[in-house]
């Protein structure tokens, strides 16, 4: 059982588009989070005051008090709750402004739900790695060390690059699920990076080589027109 299984992490979504907010909330709940939804900034701040969130997903274009003012209010109160800005504003000025006010990450609409969930998990690990608990995983012959970005197999310890480890992390999060190349770009690269799909293949091949992965019984299976999947059960 994962260490945080006793207490689902609480994510507060502040989003005035009801349909989108409900979709995000439902997706987070399906991923094991405790999610709450508020439609404006003042209601969001009040909800956070009643029951502190572990992370806030914050839209910028809110009625009344906009997202930036919500963020400024939190930081003026010395509240260090992690904040992921979710907005249709894709300009770099808005992104820089949000991050300068203390946001932890920025995701522009439209977005993939898988990417949103992956970014939330990454922020929570950075904010409280002990509580998030995903420091070591076991899968087949491998022990994956999240703290040192390394993989142990038998007596061999292999250090992965950050990109290789991000790819491995995405695959391990959903063993058996096929991840298309574009999905891997969304989940394992920064929002402002634009690698080619061939670049994904090159990094996967480098990762497989470091893992000593065999073609006969691969841990990372290649499905030519679909993408890649992790074939082994994972224990945390």
UniProtKB/TrEMBL annotation:
Residues 10-124 form the Response regulatory domain. InterPro entries: CheY-like_superfamily (IPR011006), OmpR/PhoB-type_DNA-bd (IPR001867), Sig_transdc_resp-reg_C-effctor (IPR016032), Sig_transdc_resp-reg_receiver (IPR001789), WalR-like (IPR039420), WH-like_DNA-bd_sf (IPR036388). Pfam families: Response_reg, Trans_reg_C. It comes from Mesoterricola silvestris. GO terms for molecular function: phosphorelay response regulator activity; transcription cis-regulatory region binding. It comes from the Bacteria. The lineage of its organism: Bacteria, Pseudomonadati, Acidobacteriota, Holophagae, Holophagales. This is DNA-binding response regulator. Keywords: DNA-binding, Phosphoprotein, Transcription, Transcription regulation, Two-component regulatory system. The modification 4-aspartylphosphate is found at residue 59. One of its GO terms (cellular component) is cytosol. Residues 134-232 bind DNA. One of its GO terms (biological process) is regulation of DNA-templated transcription. Residues 134-232 form the OmpR/PhoB-type domain. The gene is phoB_2.
């Amino acid at each position: 059982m994962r260490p945080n299984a006793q207490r689902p992490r609480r994510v507060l979504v502040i989003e005035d588009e009801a349909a989108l907010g409900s979709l995000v909330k439902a997706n987070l709940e399906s991923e094991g989070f405790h999610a709450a939804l508020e439609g404006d900034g003042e209601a969001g701040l009040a909800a956070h005051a009643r029951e502190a969130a572990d992370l806030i997903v914050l839209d910028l274009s809110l009625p009344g008090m906009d997202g930036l003012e919500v963020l400024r209010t939190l930081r003026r109160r010395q509240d260090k709750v992690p904040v992921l800005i979710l907005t249709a504003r894709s300009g770099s000025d808005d992104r820089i402004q949000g991050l300068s006010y203390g946001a932890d990450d920025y995701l522009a609409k439209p977005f993939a739900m898988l990417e949103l969930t992956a970014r939330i998990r990454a922020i929570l690990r950075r904010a409280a790695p002990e509580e998030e608990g995903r420091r070591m995983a076991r899968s087949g012959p491998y022990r994956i060390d999240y703290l040192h970005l390394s993989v142990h197999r038998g007596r061999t310890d292999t250090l992965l690059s950050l990109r290789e480890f991000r790819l491995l992390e995405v695959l391990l999060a959903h063993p058996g699920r096929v991840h298309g190349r574009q999905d891997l770009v969304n989940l394992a690269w920064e929002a402002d990076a634009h690698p080619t799909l061939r670049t994904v293949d090159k990094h996967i091949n480098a990762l497989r080589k470091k893992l000593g992965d065999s073609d006969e019984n691969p841990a990372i299976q290649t499905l030519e027109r679909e993408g890649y999947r992790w074939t082994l059960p994972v224990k945390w």
